Structures are given as C-alpha cells and as structure tokens.
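User: I'm writing a tutorial on reading structure tokens. Could you give me a worked example: one chain, its sequence, then its tokens, then a sentence or two explaining what the tokens reveal?
Assistant: Sure. Here is the example chain.
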Amino acid sequence: MKTKKMGEVSFSVQEDHDFSWLEEMGHVFCVFDEQDSGNISFGVEREDGKFFVKYAGAKPMDFSGEPKEAVERLRTAMSVYQQLKHPSVIRLKHHFALKEGYAAVFNWAEGECLHSHWSHGGPAKYTDPTSPYYRFRKLSVPSRLQALDTIFSFHAFVEEQGFVAIDFYDGSILYDFNNDVTTLCDIDFYRKSPTVNDIGEEFWGADRSKSKEEYELGAVIDERTNEYTMGAIAFGLLGGETDHSFSKWEAGEGLFEVAGKAVGEDRGTRYSSVRAFKEAWEEARRRC
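And here are its predicted structure tokens:
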C-alpha cells in the first residue's frame, strides 16, 4: 500500500503510481478514492474555476480488477458523455491519455451525492441526520418530485438518442441543497441499444435499482429495463426503496400505481419505454 498526499487530501493505492500530472493541474481539494470501478476522482481548483477529474490507471484500495481494463472503460465512456450532452449532466471539458492511465476533466457541479458510502456507509445513510440521502428524504414531496422530473427527463432523452442506461442508481445523483438543483453524474456505462447483459449476476448496478434481467446472462437490456430503473429510483426517493408497499410511499396513490407498474418483475407488464412511463407519471401528477 502506498499513501499519497496532494493539496488538502491524502489517499492510498495498492501500488505506487505517478500523480505528478495532477498537481500540475491545480490545487487538489478533495478526493473520491473508495470506488470499485478502478477510478479515482479529484476536485481540483485553479484560476479558471473548479473541476472534477476522473482518473483510471492506478489500483485503488477497493479495486480488484486490472488497471488497463479501467482505462479502456473510461476512454470508451468519453463518447457517451459527448453524445449524451445534456443540461442535467456534468459537463465534460476535455480528456487525455497519460503514460500510465487516462484522465477526464469535467466542470465542477455543486451538490452532494445521495449515496455517499465513503462518509455515510451502511445504516448511517438512512439514519444519520448529516447523510445527504437522509436530508434529501426530509425534503418536501414537491422538492423530491422536482428532482425526479430531472432524472426522468434526462432518461427520456437517453432513450431518444438510442442509448440504454447502465449502472444508474442514487450514487449517480448529486443534489445541491442550497439551490434545489439536481445534477446527474457517472453515466460511464451507458450503451447504445440494443445490448445484453454480458456479465450475469454481477452486471453493473446497485441491487436496489436492478431489474430481473440485470441478473441474467444474455438477457436483453432495453427500454423496459430503463423504465424499471426509473420506478426503482422513485421508490428510493419517495418510498421504501426495495419495499414497494404503499405504506412506505409518500406521494399519493396515483404515482404509487405508476411506480409499481414500472417495477414489475414481468417485463411484459411494465411500461414499454421511459417515455411511456414519464407520460403516465405526469398524468398521475395532474390528477393529484
């Protein structure tokens, strides 16, 4: 294990690695190093602003794969951010290869991650009053519905561009509590449709947001998968997360019925697309 110190932060990697290029970019004021994707991310500030820098090539402590695989995933993701450029998604500024890895630089987005496992892991996410998720769940229902509008609108756009969302969960949501603004991040694994589950049970994603087909090797991942994810996110932000009972739901019977249909185990009973789900959701809101 090697411990690195840069600017205001220190972090550990499994093997020594050259990060001198990062110090040349500006003042490092935060680090996100507890990721199993193989990426390490940093907040960097310089005269022209604050930036979020995602890097692959090192071996983070929680990473069990090969750095070259993480590098290729990050490199491939750059075209995803370019094709899915959207006001609600962190903005890719530029990206470049380094001797031992690959870096992507994004404009900094104010907000707190709703799945901050590095600071509020386990039960603390749900019970600690300082947890971003806990605080978000204490917001009014209209404020949370507004955040969901942002999420659903972006994923309708994703669908229109011929993509499917892979690995979208509450860890992909940043919420700015000061300005009530929702920003989405970490869309690295989104793919062009059609695609299939090429991994099996360990397919990318959080168990609380994954559909049945996201555990089945060779299963089709498509619009019905994505609308399941939207329903699961709705239950995570308005209901009992994996408990889909009405007793845990906070937003009325009409929206509950829409979210419940979205997370049907049988693909054939779900909405046919994110667009269809979004239209049903909006109609239910109008009836409230």
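What the tokens reveal: The helical segments are 20-25, 67-83, 124-127, 132-137, 141-160, 223-238, 253-262, 274-287. The domain at 2-107 is CATH 3.30.200.20 (Phosphorylase Kinase; domain 1).
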